[in-house]
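Note to self: keep these together.
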Amino acid sequence: MTITLAEEITLLSLDDESGSVRQRQSVGWAVAGAILLELVLAERVLVSGKYLELVDTSPTGEELLDGRIGLMETWMRGRSKRRVTDWLTKDQARAIGAAVERLSGRGVVVEERRKALGVFPVRRYPEADGSVERALRERLASAVLKGAEPDERTASLIAVIHAAALHGLAFPGRPRKEIVARTAEIADGQWAAESIRGAIRDMRLAMAAITVATAAGAAASG
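Structure:
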């Protein structure tokens, strides 16, 4: 089964037992970036430096991407260019939900609804078909752990994983230094992902700085 880069990142983030998303904030940036990268690869969006252009609004045939084309067209408001970081900021909060919904529609995960403490509604998405994730992890391991030359899609996926610092989700239990060095090597060769990767990295670092500042402020006031 062929799934989108965004779905692949989402699948890597879902806890096998609970079906909940791990490292949700970083994963949100990564999934939004992966959708944007897919649109670049599909020649619907052009990314140059810090800006993006919507150059083709025709359907791709992929539900997840076509939904984003409509949203982006409205967001552009007739402008020829807008900042990549502005789009990722807008899309990251809802991108995971869209990717999970697509995985559910394909039968890869199932939706479970329950109430936490008997009051608060909670949704979890345990896997229904583990073969998709196994094939994905084997593909990543071949490129990163075994040194095989990745195809364009796998290299693009690795570039996004590297930018969002999701090495632990993609390669659990492996030495981080070893993984980061190899993913950086692969990411550096991805021209299509370069600007998006930079934007994800910048947004992730900015959010981390805000979190640290907020925590420091709370400690000082306490």
